[in-house]
Amino acid sequence: MILKTVDVVTDISKEDFQKKYFKKRKPLLIKNFASRWEAFDQWNFDFIREKAGDQEVPLYDNKPADASKSSDAPVTRMKMKDYIDVIKTKPSDLRIFFYIITDRLPELLKNFTYPDLRIKFFKRLPTLFFGGSEAHVLMHYDVDLGDFIHIHFEGKKRILLFDQKQSAFLYKVPLSVHTIYEVDYENPDYEKFPALKYAKGFEIFMEHGDALFIPGAFWHFNRYLEAGFSMSLRALPNKPNVFAGMLYHVFIMRYTDKLMRKIFKAKWVNYKQEWAYKKSTKAVEKFKTKQKRS
Q1: N or C, fewer C-beta in 10 Å, the chain?
Q2: pLDDT(19) > 90
Q3: Contacts of residue 142, Cβ cutoff 8 Å, sequence gap at least 6
Q4: Radius of gyration (Cα) for the chain, nearest Å?
Q5: What are phi and psi of 62, to 5 degrees?
Q6: Comparing C-alpha atoms, which of 168, 182, 120, 170 is closest to residue 140?
């Protein structure tokens, strides 16, 4: 993979953000962004444990979803306080996915302010994501195609970003928003997955309080280097073509895939994986041919 760093700032005007990053669909890291919040000192595991400790939460791990089950079925459930105790005290790949603050911990809503960057945030869905020191999230892009600000707390986190032009080189699985399960983005096997060598993207390391602007439909791979949690503030697509794309992803592609998965189970999953590999192989051949001609 060909990775470069993103631009890093400690502050930015909404005018500069719109001109240099939002309109150009370019990621940006804002260091210590959350430190300007009055309640910044409450964005930690201890506060979450105190306020939501008795809530039962669904947990996921690093393994691909079981083909015989729903792709969003959790591997287990645990009380929030027990989960936090686990990831704080020992290595773990357990993580919490899409914890909706508005529904589960509305008290947190008063502990942050939305960035004044001329982004029209969908304020119904500020969400939290938690992970232990061995947790990662499979390479994917979000089905709603929305731009978002990702703010991280507690331990360090590594993120890889790629735009949609890199999809074939990442081994995108058809009728889905993820790539082939076997690809290891931390230790890529270029012999088994040679197309990865041509994928151009960004590598970002986030620390407590940092905020990352991720343009809509960008591929992202998240790796918790230490136990931590993040909040995503989302915006719905505001362009007609992108909004139409979101409707297709959410209501047609997603449910077609779920139906085929329910009917054919592992056969469907394996078929899509093979299909993805063939498409990426062709993309590499096409790229090499183009290079020779130029």
Answers
A1: C
A2: yes
A3: 148, 177, 216, 217
A4: 19
A5: -80, -10
A6: 170
Of 158, 217, 160, 168, nearest in space to 193 by CA = 168
Q: In Å, how far are 69, 268, 272 from 262, measured between CA atoms? A: 8, 9, 14
Helix or strand or coil: residue 214?
strand
Give the DSSP H/E element, type plus range, for residue 228. Answer: strand 228-234
pLDDT digits (tens, 9 = 90+) for 145-180: 999 999 999 999 999 999 999 999 999 998 888 999
Return the SS3 of 92: coil
Instruction: Give SS3 for 148.
Output: strand
Task: Quote the CA–CA distance of 80 and 105 in Å, as a whole number.
Answer: 12
pLDDT in tens, 51-74: 999 999 999 999 876 656 666 789
Contact partners, residue 35, CB within 8 Å, separation at least 6: 209
SS3 per-residue string spanning 217-277: CCEEEEEECCCEEEEEEEECCCCHHHHHHHHHHHHHHHHHHHHHHHHHCHHHHHHHHHHHH
**pLDDT confidence of residue 243:** 87
Q: If we measure between CA atoms, which residue out of 174, 163, 157, 147 comes closest to residue 239?
A: 147
Cα end-to-end distance, the chain, whole Å:
22
Q: Cα(56)–Cα(103) distance, rounded to whole angstroms?
A: 13
Query: Cα–Cα distance between 34 and 47 in angstroms, integer?
Result: 16
